[in-house]
Amino acid sequence: MTGKVEEALSYEQARDELIEVVRRLEAGGTSLEESLALWERGEELAKVCRRWLEGARARLDAALAEEEEDGDGDGQGERTASGG
């Protein structure tokens, strides 16, 4: 299952299914073929989650960059970055 189906999954759906895949793999009792299929599905789901997280990071970075360009002048980002 690849392509459009993965694109339609929300982060939460992909994460929850990935948790279930890991649980089944850790529980054992599956054939080699089933284990390989679960592993492959887990890899696909991990990629979906990674894409969602990378997209969220890009949105946050863009928002922060926009805030800096607006020149709030409060210097909060600098204080936070320096830990003080």
Task: Outline the structure in words.
With 84 residues, the protein is mainly α. 81% of the residues lie in helices and 0% in strands. The protein has 4 helices and no strands. Helix 2 packs antiparallel against helix 3. It starts with a helix and ends with a helix. The mean pLDDT is 86.
Beta-strand segment tally:
0
Helix and strand content put the structural class at: mainly alpha
Number of helices: 4
Q: What percent strand?
A: under 5%
Main sheet, how many strands, which sense, barrel? Answer: none
Average pLDDT confidence is 86
How are helices and strands ordered from N to C?
A: HHHH
Compose a concise summary of this entry.
The protein has 84 residues and is mainly alpha-helical.
List the helices and strands and how they pair.
Elements: H1 4-8, H2 11-27, H3 32-70, H4 76-82
Descriptive labels:
mainly alpha, 81% helix, 84 residues
